[in-house]
C-alpha cells in the first residue's frame, strides 16, 4: 500500500518536473510541453489504475493553485482554458495506455508501450483536447482538429521515448514496471 502511494506521488512529481522544460505556446493558447510524456510513462510503467491516480493527484494539486504545469501555471482557471480538454483527458490517457500495456502480450515491451502511448497518450488525449479546444475557442470540431495537428510530430516522438524508456527500465529493474508484473 505505502509503495503504491509513494509511486503515485513520484510519478505526479515526474509530470510536474517535466513542466520545467520551457513551454512553447501556440497561437491558440495551448502549450507544447514535455508533460504529456509523463502521462504516457504513468500508464506504461505504473499501469492503468496507479497511472491514472498519479495524474489525478497532479491535477488536484494544480486545481488548488500549485504552479506545477509548464510555465508555472496552476489554479482552477486552467480547467476552463483552451488547455482544459487536454488536462481532463490526461488521467483517461494514462489509464488507457496502462490498460493496453497490461493486456497486450507477445510483442516486445518497447513496441507495446510505444503503441499504447500512441493510442492512449495521443488518440485518447486528443479526443478530450479537441473537444475542449472546440468549446473554449468556439470552433468547430474540424477546426479544432486542424489546430491540434501541430502537436502530432512531437507527441509521436514522446510515444517512442515512452516505449524505449519503459523497455529499458524493465530490462534494468524488471519489478519496477508494474504494468507488466
From TrEMBL:
<feature type="transmembrane region" description="Helical">
    <location>
        <begin position="147"/>
        <end position="170"/>
    </location>
</feature>
<feature type="transmembrane region" description="Helical">
    <location>
        <begin position="109"/>
        <end position="135"/>
    </location>
</feature>
<feature type="transmembrane region" description="Helical">
    <location>
        <begin position="53"/>
        <end position="70"/>
    </location>
</feature>
<keyword id="KW-0812">Transmembrane</keyword>
<keyword id="KW-1133">Transmembrane helix</keyword>
<keyword id="KW-1003">Cell membrane</keyword>
<dbReference type="GO" id="GO:0005886">
    <property type="term" value="C:plasma membrane"/>
</dbReference>
<dbReference type="Pfam" id="PF02632">
    <property type="entry name" value="BioY"/>
</dbReference>
<dbReference type="GO" id="GO:0015225">
    <property type="term" value="F:biotin transmembrane transporter activity"/>
</dbReference>
<feature type="transmembrane region" description="Helical">
    <location>
        <begin position="29"/>
        <end position="46"/>
    </location>
</feature>
<keyword id="KW-0472">Membrane</keyword>
<comment type="similarity">
    <text>Belongs to the BioY family.</text>
</comment>
<protein>
    <recommendedName>
        <fullName>Biotin transporter</fullName>
    </recommendedName>
</protein>
<feature type="transmembrane region" description="Helical">
    <location>
        <begin position="76"/>
        <end position="97"/>
    </location>
</feature>
<dbReference type="InterPro" id="IPR003784">
    <property type="entry name" value="BioY"/>
</dbReference>
<keyword id="KW-0813">Transport</keyword>
Amino acid at each position: 500500500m505505502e509503495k503504491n502511494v509513494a509511486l503515485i506521488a513520484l510519478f505526479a512529481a515526474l509530470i510536474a518536473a517535466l513542466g520545467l522544460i520551457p513551454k512553447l505556446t501556440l497561437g491558440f493558447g495551448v502549450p507544447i510541453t514535455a508533460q504529456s510524456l509523463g502521462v504516457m510513462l504513468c500508464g506504461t510503467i505504473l499501469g492503468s489504475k496507479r497511472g491514472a491516480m498519479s495524474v489525478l493527484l497532479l491535477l488536484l494539486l494544480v486545481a488548488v493553485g500549485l504552479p506545477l504545469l509548464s510555465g508555472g501555471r496552476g489554479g482552477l482557471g486552467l480547467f476552463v482554458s483552451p488547455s482544459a480538454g487536454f488536462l481532463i483527458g490526461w488521467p483517461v490517457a494514462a489509464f488507457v495506455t496502462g490498460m493496453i500495456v497490461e493486456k497486450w502480450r507477445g510483442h516486445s515491451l518497447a513496441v507495446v508501450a510505444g503503441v499504447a502511448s500512441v493510442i492512449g497518450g495521443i488518440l485518447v488525449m486528443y479526443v478530450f483536447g479537441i473537444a475542449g479546444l472546440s468549446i473554449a475557442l468556439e470552433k468547430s470540431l474540424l477546426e479544432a482538429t486542424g489546430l491540434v495537428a501541430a502537436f502530432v510530430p512531437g507527441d509521436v516522438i514522446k510515444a517512442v521515448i515512452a516505449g524505449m524508456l519503459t523497455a529499458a527500465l524493465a530490462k534494468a529493474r524488471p519489478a519496477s514496471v508494474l504494468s507488466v508484473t
